[in-house]
Please model this.
Amino acid sequence: MEKEKASKDELEFVRDIERSLANLEPPMSSDCCIYRVPRNLRKGMKEDAYTPHAVSIGPLHHGKKELEPMERQKLRYLQEFMFHTDSSLYALFCFIKVMEDRIRSCYAETIPFNSNEFVKMILTDAAFIILHIVKSNYDDLDEVVYRNSCLMSSIRRDIMLLENQIPFFVLCELYDFHYRMPSPVLKLAFPLPLELCHYRGQTYICDYISLMVCLMETSKDVDLLVQKKILDNSLSDSNEVVTFVRNLRSNIVVDRRHNYYNNLFTSLNRHCEQRWVEAFRSQQKWHITLKVWLTVLKVDYFSNPWRTASTIAASLLLVFTLSPGFQVTSDSEILVESLRLQVISDSEILARSPGV
Model:
């Protein structure tokens, strides 16, 4: 009986595992390119550094209450997009619907929205980004969004965030097939967290930050880089720049084997080592020269008491002569000259004496 009960428990346990396997999410697709910011980066920076302030793009921050005002603006942009493309909402909806599975596979986590909600969100966000990029290149637009420089700055920042993205191919295909307004080439930058998650061995931004940390150890370094127009400091204090870069660097693990600036590091180290060697050699030469001059001075001018006295007297005369307001009188000249002749005479006698 106990054996039979044990078998039933084991069977139920196996069924639980089977149900878990059946509900298991599919493995991450090779198309995956949109991630959550790693926790180690969030710890090193303020939480809102990776959170949108004005507009949500994509599903990861969609529906947040503080971002609702821009949702209404995005719908206005969708309406304007339909007008410029001469497309029906149904046609645009179906166009995105065809790409739904491919779009979902670009996210590192399962998106909980149903199909219709997901397609509506992607369409609205894509239309907003395209129209926003186009409008941003016109200086005479009389719209609330473009008159508000603070809001414009927040939007530019938000559409660069790793967690606030839709796949780039959506923008390209939607633009190519439907949009007819003249526009500059669409360009979206890859932020730092994306490199860490997706581009192993090609972490150019991370490598650049590592380089800047080496160059900015103190606020004086920052001031020098700003002065040489290498760095544009938009923060209030140079110390803030040093702290910011250090915090950023402390959460980045750089693979030195693939560091983009390896050659530059090597050249700089070699240059510094060479300068140190040259400075050391120059110092050695200076010591040798000084030693030679001291030897000459000792032999020629201080080899005996008479030469020493003569040298001191001549030096004093030179100092007094060059001093402002000092004039050599005739009595002084006679005294010094007598002293000089006496010193020379005594020196010659001493030099002829045995044992000197």
